[in-house]
Write a structure and sequence with these properties.
By secondary structure, the chain is of the alpha/beta class. Helices cover 43% and strands 16% of the residues. The strands form four sheets. Strands 3-2-1-4-5-6-11 form a seven-stranded parallel β-sheet, with helices on both faces. Strands 7-10 form a two-stranded parallel ribbon. It is globular and about 60 Å long. The structure holds nicotinamide-adenine-dinucleotide (NAD) and 2'deoxy-thymidine-5'-diphospho-alpha-D-glucose.
């Protein structure tokens, strides 16, 4: 196992109120070897929720800054005020379906927002910049093969193309200005605190409420599922030990067709609620496919395994059970999230499918 190249003392986490960013902040405050400060910069869009951090941070070492990455002055002010020496950049518009309905926010937040952060780092080159990205930048696979770090970029949705653009900016700032940067490209995450517009939490909540389980197209699209805490551990390793200028693929080694995911979820929900499977099976509804729907993603994560000693620790059965249990135990979180913008958006977009 390699040793630390960096020991950050004041980390700016962007998007720390979201699904993965909050898992990363919870990990930082569980890690006894990290004694530094965390500044969480988040605009609190529909996807940001400070409840995700309640009770999980040491307030004496934590600051929340409500700011929008598109506002360069606000970004500069946060970096300056907290003597930041490392930025871990999660904030993004993250949902593919939303990017199809309205791409502008994706370009502005994911491209311009990343550019603003990189400009702040260019003015303060002692800062290390870690960029959290996605496997979707590599495009869509056929029945065989895996994405490696050298797979050519071929993004195919407004979301993935905005992430690809931001990845290229990170690489350009490393090569042109000599910034210290690392990048990780991860497969589909799942776990607690996941906003219920994405496949797994949407299906869980719809099972609880007896609502249709909408499967796009023929349900044969494949994703490589990774438990969110495993991803947070990978990011923390890359931040400390990843070689500057390098990218690392992160995946769950857990390829599943969507229809298999839905059946596995039904098994889990039925077992944990002690209800018959048939109650949930009857909710499965095949709906119109997502435009440009990528068929298959699968990650070769041998580089991060070999160089940094990372491996996913949760298998899918345990990860799903932990996830469903969390949603069963947190009705207040669900009620609060649903009282916000998400329900309206879902109702508009899934009505009539
Ligand atoms: P999320 O949508 O749950 O959270 C995004 C967070 O960013 C929210 O807290 C939101 O308020 C904040 N944000 C959005 N726009 C902002 C802006 N303009 N200024 C400041 N804050 C803003 O997203 P997530 O699923 O946690 O994803 C985090 C990162 O990981 C993203 O960069 C995403 O592309 C990447 N990623 C996600 C997955 C996945 O499966 N969810 C997989 C691979 C990579
Ligand atoms: O691969 C990493 C990416 O994974 C991240 O970069 C994105 O931020 C994240 O949202 C996720 O993108 P996907 O489009 O793969 O995730 P989503 O949960 O939206 O969909 C997963 C699969 O399930 C996909 O094939 C579409 C399908 N789907 C999704 C929803 C919401 C359905 O069949 N029905 C649904 O209702």
């Amino acid at each position: 196992m390699s040793t630390d190249l960096r020991t950050p003392k004041s980390i700016l986490v962007t998007g720390g109120a979201g699904f993965i960013g909050s898992a990363f902040i919870r990990l930082l405050f569980r890690d006894k070897s990290f004694t530094g400060r965390v500044t969480n910069l988040d605009a609190l869009t529909y996807a940001g929720n400070l409840e995700n951090l309640a009770g999980h941070v040491d307030e004496s070492r934590y600051t929340f800054v409500k700011a929008d990455l598109r506002d360069m002055k606000a970004v500069e002010a946060a970096v300056e005020a907290h003597a930041i020496d490392c930025i871990v950049h999660f904030a993004a518009e993250s949902h593919v379906d939303r990017s199809i309905h309205g791409p502008r926010d994706f370009i502005e937040t994911n491209v311009l927002g990343t550019f603003n952060l990189l400009e702040a780092v260019r003015a303060r080159p002692a800062i290390h910049f870690h960029h959290v990205s996605t496997d979707e930048v590599y495009g869509s696979l056929g029945d065989t093969g895996l994405f490696t770090e050298s797979t050519p970029y071929d993004p195919r949705s407004p979301y993935s193309s905005s992430k690809a653009a931001s990845d290229h900016l990170v690489s350009a700032y490393h090569h042109t200005y000599g910034l210290s940067t690392t990048l990780s490209n991860c497969s589909n995450n799942y776990g607690p605190h996941h906003f219920p517009e994405k496949l797994i939490p949407l299906m869980i909540l719809n099972c609880f409420e007896g609502k249709p389980l909408p499967i796009y197209g023929d349900g044969g699209n494949v994703r490589d599922w990774l438990y969110v805490d495993d991803h947070a551990e990978a990011v923390w390793l890359v931040v400390r030990r990843g070689r500057s200028g390098q990218s690392y693929n992160v995946g769950g080694k857990c390829e599943k067709k969507n229809v298999e995911v839905v059946h596995a979820l039904i098994d889990t929900v039925a077992r944990l609620t002690q209800r018959p499977r048939a109650d949930f099976e009857k909710l499965i509804t095949y709906v119109k496919d997502r435009p440009g729907h990528d068929r298959r993603y699968a990650i070769d994560c041998s580089k991060i395994e070999r160089e940094l000693g990372w491996a996913p620790r949760h298998d899918f059965t345990r990860g799903l059970a932990d996830t469903v249990r969390w949603y069963l135990d947190n009705p207040k979180w669900i009620a609060n999230v649903k009282s916000g913008a998400y329900r309206t958006w879902l109702d508009q977009n899934y009505a009539g499918r």
